[in-house]
Amino acid sequence: MSSEEFEKLHEIYRSLYEELKLMPERLLRSNGEEKKSLLRAFEERKEEAEEILQGMEVELRDAPPSYRNPMRTKLHLYHRDLAKLQRDAKTSAPPLSDGSHGGIYSSQNQQSTRLQSQRALLLQGTESLHNASESIDRSQRLAAETEHIGTDIIEELGEQREQLDRTRDRLVNTGENLSRTRKILRSMSRRLMTNKLLLAVIILMELAILGAVVYLKFFRR
Fold first, then answer.
1. What is the SS3 assignment for 107?
2. How many C-beta atoms surround the C-beta of residue 82 within 10 A?
3. Which pTM was predicted?
């Protein structure tokens, strides 16, 4: 509900009602064509006031209950006031003659029918506008929710990408560490083989020396 729109309609109604209140007294002081003109004007203003009240009722549909209930009571009183003004107007305008009376109310009926048709179209347009506004509001809420979900997904994908980047970096570092480890192991293996060869050579040399000593000591005489 638009409280601003409701207040505008309320001001328009109050202005029409103040104008209508003066008409029964004017009808008492008028005669002939002036009375006919005043009756037509009264009916037109009354129809406009009823249309304004119906527009206010439409605006109240989505209002909070704390605001809607007292305002509906007030609208009921406004309808009652309009009905009382109509009775006062009919009382203030006694029939001039059968022909004149029939002409006045025939014209009034035609005018009333036309205004009722216009009012129905106005109410239909107001209802369509109200439904369109609700549809737009729902679409906007859905778009906002979709945008929020999309933002969350993008943020989550960003976090997952950062985790993947960190995992890849760790894997790269692990691969580099494994490469260095393999190099160290190969180097240690070569050194071990070299040490074994040197040890074997030393042992053979010691055996040769020992054999030479034994030979020279025991066999060469």
1. helix
2. 20
3. 0.40
193 pLDDT above the threshold of 60: yes
- Checking if the pLDDT of 69 tops 90, the result is no
Nearest to residue 2, comparing CAs of 133, 113, 93?
Answer: 133
The dihedral formed by the CA atoms of 140, 142, 147 and 149, expressed in degrees to the nearest 10: 160
Interval 111-149: pLDDT, tens = 656 666 676 677 777 777 777 777 787 878 888 888 888
On whether the CB atoms of residues 96 and 29 are closer than 8 A, the answer is: no
> Which residue's entry shows tokens 């002409």?
103
Structure tokens belonging to residue 201: 């050579």
Which residue type is seen at 186?
R
Buried b (16+ CB within 10 A) or exposed e, 193-216: eeeeeeeeeeeeeeeeeeeeeeee
8 A C-beta contact, residue 50 and residue 82? yes
